[in-house]
Amino acid sequence: MLHNRIALFRAERGVSRRDLAEAVGVNNQTIGYLERGDYKPSLELAMKIAAYFGVSIELLFSFHPFESVADTLRRAAAVGE
Amino acid sequence: MSLLEKMDRAVYATGIDRLLFRKIKPHNLRWLPLFVLAALILGYWLMARTAGIADVRIMIPRLLGGWLVFYGAYLLAMFLRLFGPRMVSTPRQPLDEREAAIKARAGAMSGNILAIAVLGGCIYMSVAGLLGWWHPSRPIDWTNLGFGLQAGFLLLPTLIASWLQPVDDELE
């Protein structure tokens, strides 16, 4: 299983599926399937998406589930205290 | 309103422009192609069973009924491709890598299924004549069989592609 944070990055940047799809040259539906984990992208597409968000590919895709935003914030708060 | 304006309005009202320029949102058609395939088989059967009827007054209405069902399904088979998963690239919207992969897999699988069906049909017809079973004999039977195969070639990739990809996701 290949996990990804495309939906998170998209929400954070306020990018619609249509905008992302047009930017990386795929159909809107393909972005939906990618976000739900129903489709594994090619290396080329994964790199295009990572480049679009300006992050490394490891930040966007992982073989292990990503930590939830709530957990990340909780951990960050604990470190701050 | 001029004739050109009227024609323009009619094109937009009927949605012909959406069909021509492929602006239709693709849908997963998981069951409709099966019903169309069933209608093709039913229509063919209705036409084929008129072979032994000598009375024209009985034969013609039955043949016409079968013809309407069969060729109605044939027309639907051609149109369903436009509403199912995208299989044809357009200059404005080429197939992306996922769609190209789905198209290739659906095409390969439907090709295999049709090849097996044709092989089975050839074997059946080689023995049907000897055993006295029904088999296409009139020119119209063979012509309809050809159109039926073509409709199957149009329908199967749409059906298989609809099952290969997950259910439709709502677009934003």
Key features?
heterodimer; A: 434 Repressor (Amino-terminal Domain); 6 helices; 63% helix; globular; B: 172 residues; 0% strand; flat
H-E string of chain A? EHHHHHEH
Poorly predicted ranges of chain B? none
Number of domains of chain A: 1
User: Got a strand count of chain B?
Assistant: 0
Average pLDDT of chain B works out at: 88
> For the record, what is the CATH homologous superfamily label of chain A?
lambda repressor-like DNA-binding domains
Largest sheet of chain B: none
As a whole number of angstroms, the C-alpha radius of gyration of chain A is: 14 Å
Gap from first CA to last CA of chain A: 35 Å
Q: Strand pairing plus helix content of chain B: what structural class?
A: mainly alpha
Q: Give helix and strand order of chain B, one letter per element, not per position.
A: HHHHHH
Could you give the count of β-strands of chain A? 2
Please, how many domains of chain B?
1
Description:
The complex is a heterodimer of chains A (81) and B (172). With 81 residues, chain A is mostly helical. Chain A has one domain: lambda repressor-like DNA-binding domains (434 Repressor (Amino-terminal Domain)), CATH 1.10.260.40. Chain A has six helices and two strands; from the N terminus they run E-H-H-H-H-H-E-H. Chain A has a two-stranded antiparallel sheet with strand order 1-2. In chain A, helix 2 crosses helix 3. Chain A is globular and about 45 Å long. The termini of chain A are far apart. With 172 residues, chain B is mainly alpha-helical. Chain B has one domain. In chain B, 72% of the residues lie in helices and 0% in strands. The longest helix of chain B is centred in the middle third of the chain and has 35 residues. The model of chain B has no long low-confidence stretch (mean pLDDT 88).
